[in-house]
Amino acid sequence: MKPWIDHDRTTTPDGEDLCLRERDGEFVIEIDGGAMLMSNRVHGSEMVQADLACTKLPKKRPHVLVGGLGMGFTVRATLDLLPADGTVTVAELLPAVVEWNRGILSEFAGHPLRDPRVRVDQRDVAKTIRANPKTFDAILLDVDNGPEPFTATDNAGLYGNAGLRAAHRALRPGGTYAVWSAFGDKKFEDRLRANGFAARSQGVRARKGRGSRHTVFLGVKR
Hints:
By secondary structure, the protein is α/β, with parallel strands linked by helices. It has one domain: 3-Layer(aba) Sandwich (Rossmann fold), CATH 3.40.50. Helices cover 25% and strands 36% of the residues. It has a seven-stranded mixed beta sheet with strand order 7-6-5-8-9-11-10. A four-stranded antiparallel beta sheet has the order 1-2-3-4, with no helix packed on it. α1 (44-53) packs parallel to α2. The mean pLDDT is 91.
């Protein structure tokens, strides 16, 4: 078996080590030397998240926020659903992740950051949300592990009451808030409803039709 090659690494705001590794054509992003966050071979649920979130976008000039760039698959799936006059704002806190997606990872998702409809906002997605009231037709969050984060404690603020109220303000009427999660969470669905969303969740597979189960939470602004 071929050995893993470490291509680059960076540090999260919590001081944890984030490493981009590759072996025999598979690229992974790992946290603290072992826990795999994502792989270029496992991204089916991210693609489904975009499908679910973007079904009711306006036909003219839709604006979608994607929080968490990852390996670019959510952005790519979103772009494929948008018209030519649409816009995708990508909020990504870590400069290294942006650079990986402009370079070594770019081809796997079809070079999404080269698309002229994409704007990169290099800061915490929570700040992007708070700074843009009534701006987005959909907000897609693929930040950490979902409502129960494990790579950055600050991410928990996205999914509490204050974070959900901010997301509600940032959406246009009828806009969709979609959260990728490794787990289901009934309490989170209840929080969505308590903060002005018509909420539901859907189980999705990590790969097309197979693999581990993930959850996409969906909230439509009432």
